[in-house]
Amino acid sequence: EAGLAVYQTHNGHMEFFVRREGKRCQAVLCIRLHSILHEQSVMALPSPSARLDVLAFGDHYEFLLNGQPFGTSDSKLLSTEMAGGFTGVTVGPYCRTGKASFKGFDYEEQ
Length: 110
Known about the structure:
Layout: E1 2-9, E2 12-21, E3 24-33, E4 36-45, E5 52-56, E6 60-65, E7 68-74, H1 80-83, E8 90-95
Antiparallel strand pairs: 1-2, 1-8, 2-3, 3-4, 5-6, 6-7
């Protein structure tokens, strides 16, 4: 499992990733808020190679898979009041299991 995390705290974050289960590959958007772990969107992939994008707006996040809409989430879920913490969110790549190859990571402020 590897992808991008929108991270506020261990108990409040969003993960957009590719996972392998045997020969199957899936793209997944997962949201954790305290004891709730919710897979909001899941889609089969023909291979483990994919482009993952996270767009941040004032009130929500949009997640794109290979340039196409994959899911959205309310940014309030990662607010200090909901998730805890105090410094705001961090966005970046991660790998939970196995090995991953990232071809790049770009940040653009618009």
